[in-house]
Every structure is written in structure tokens, then in C-alpha cells.
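Session log. Operator J.P. requested a structure for one protein chain; no other inputs attached. Running the standard single-chain path with C-alpha cell output.
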Amino acid sequence: MNLVIASNNTHKIQEIQPILDNSFSLMSLSEIGCADELPEEQETLEGNASQKAWYIYNKFGYNCFADDTGLEIEALGGEPGVYSARYAGDGKDADANIDKVLDKLHKINNRKARFRTVISLVLNGIEYSFEGIVDGKILTERQGTGGFGYDPIFQPDESDRSFAMMSISDKNRISHRARAVIKLAEFLKQHESA
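Structure written below.
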């Protein structure tokens, strides 16, 4: 099955492809000739994922899935949430976003946080939704050089290492995105055999 992922983020695609295995051919936006800036105008992760998936399906005619992910920090009332990528400004600067989080939590002891991914799949004109959550905490400083986004300051409850210190395969065992993609993959395999 050919499936478009509404992303050109190579890190994200490298994380997702091994979970979907070889029964699905994953195509990026550039592979279908889409150079558009995808709309993300909604106030929720669910809304943004849905908006991106329908945009690709309606404009290019491909079965498509899109995700939106947010870091939700308890002491900050769920911030940055849907604004995670643009927390420190529209430049989507990961280092600036991390600095802003660390600055806001500077004198706060409650470091509880979670990553939440929502995937919207548009398959033959019908939308399905999948969610993955991983609980953890925000570290007081960056640890590790791998991963992307907030990975250097997020330590999942199941580990004593930040996401940025893990290999892709280790991260894929417990990450929010992996959990959502596993649900997506299970659904697609059942759908194919139905």
C-alpha cells in the first residue's frame, strides 16, 4: 500500500518507516511533488493533524496520514502543547524552544510532562484518528545529542536517559509517536486483510 506521510521531516520519517515495516511504501511530500507549506491553523493537535491530512488528500488524491505532536508540561498548564514547534517564535528553532522551557521551569520543582502525538489518517475519503502518549519529566539541562525537538530535555518514565541519548530503535520502543504509529499500523494491516 502506498501511503503519504504529510511531512518532509527526515527524522520523523526515519522513526516511522521501521514501525510500519515493508508492507507499506511511505512517500514524503517531496516525493508526491508537494512543496506547499501545510496549514496548521487549529487550536488542538487533533485539529492540526486532521487539517494537514485532508489538505493532502483533497489536493493530491493520495491516502495520507499526518501527525501533530505536543509537549505538555504540567506546571505550565499544558504548555507548549499545540504550539510546541513555535514556542519561542515562528522560526521553529528547537534550541530557542528548549531554552524557553528551561527558563520557565527554572525555579519549579514539578517537572512532570508528557509527549502526545495524534495521527489523522485519511483513507479512501474516511478519517481515522490514533493517539500515543509517553509520560516523563523535563530535565534541568540538555542531555544527549540525538533525536530532535525537545528530546535533549525530556526523560520518559521508563528510562534513566533522555530521548536524545537513545538510539532510534530504543526510542521507538517507548515514544509517543511510535505508540500512535503502532496503532496506525495495526489498523492498516486489519484494513488490508478485511
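Operator note: Residues 2-193 form a domain with the Maf protein fold (CATH 3.90.950.10).
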